[in-house]
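Example 9 (inverse folding). The structure is encoded as follows.
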């Protein structure tokens, strides 16, 4: 590593919510997260840039039916899947996003394409037109377990405990709380953040997720943050942007994360966040029971699946 290079860092998440209900379910989620971290960190280790690493990580997580993003997304009130994603290049402080897009395998790819456009956030009709313009193959992200959940909920016969057991058998840790996100620091010190989601599930048609907003996904030269949890809670806290701005104003990432989580907890929010700062600090925080995250600190892979402390943990 040359004098001008920094040690790349990476953290990914697969949502926040209740505890995994079995050792088998925990092992499956850990394997899914660790495999993504390993593959994406290889890209960073060989000089890949932060934006490409984040895009790749989101694509891999969108491929996993374990999580509520891409394949395995939840259904809205009318039985349709509408997905949202955002990408932010911290080096250029450029945000792009796609809102409520359907029939696409990787929503994050559309967000990445929009990084180079004048109009950088598109909603449903604009997203559909962009798919046609780019000639992206039509893809159905529906999996059977999500259809079963939707049918049970529509019949008001949805047993969350039983659904959790069934879901773990299908590698899904908890219905409706598996938004994915990636934050990366590359060897030139550039930071990027990406977030992708299938939404809340059974939501009103047209509801917009925090994942496609700076409230849920934000980065600049000082730090990058991806959030997960209840979208409305994240929006009302403006969580991702708040943490990043605090770091930019001189707070350490640990202090900024901890303060933001304390504020969120005091207002009974249900959320979590992952982050990396330009000094290489990796951090996460939560108000929910668990946050499903894994990271590479430059030496080894670790995860947060058994982290139950309400205080912040961070690594350098």
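The amino acid assigned to each position is listed next.
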């Amino acid at each position: 590593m040359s004098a001008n290079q920094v040690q790349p860092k990476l953290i990914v998440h697969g949502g926040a919510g209740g505890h995994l209900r079995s050792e088998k379910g925990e092992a499956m989620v850990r394997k899914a997260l660790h495999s993504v971290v390993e593959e994406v960190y290889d890209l960073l280790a060989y000089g890949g840039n932060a934006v490409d690493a984040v895009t790749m990580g989101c694509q891999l997580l969108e491929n996993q039916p374990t999580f509520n993003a891409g394949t395995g997304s939840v259904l809205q009130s009318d039985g349709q899947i509408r997905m949202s994603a955002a990408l932010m290049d911290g080096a250029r402080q450029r945000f792009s996003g796609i809102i409520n897009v359907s029939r696409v395998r990787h929503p994050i790819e559309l967000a990445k394409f929009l990084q180079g456009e004048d109009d950088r956030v598109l909603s449903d009709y604009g997203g559909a037109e962009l798919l046609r313009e780019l000639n992206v193959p039509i893809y159905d992200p529906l999996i059977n377990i999500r259809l079963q959940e939707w049918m049970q909920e529509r019949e008001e016969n949805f047993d969350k405990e039983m659904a959790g057991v069934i879901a773990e058998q299908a590698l899904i840790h908890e219905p409706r709380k598996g938004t994915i996100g990636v934050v990366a620091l590359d060897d030139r010190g550039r930071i990027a953040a990406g977030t992708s989601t299938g939404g809340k599930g059974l939501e009103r048609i047209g509801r917009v997720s925090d994942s496609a907003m700076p409230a849920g996904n934000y980065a600049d030269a000082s730090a990058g943050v991806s959030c997960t949890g209840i979208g409305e809670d994240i929006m009302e806290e403006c969580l991702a942007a708040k943490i990043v701005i605090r770091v930019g104003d001189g707070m350490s990432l640990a202090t900024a994360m901890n303060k933001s989580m304390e504020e969120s907890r005091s207002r009974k929010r249900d959320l979590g966040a992952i982050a990396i700062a330009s000094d290489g600090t990796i951090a996460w925080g939560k108000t929910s029971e668990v946050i499903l995250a894994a990271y590479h600190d430059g030496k080894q892979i670790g995860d947060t699946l058994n982290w139950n402390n309400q205080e912040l943990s961070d690594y350098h």
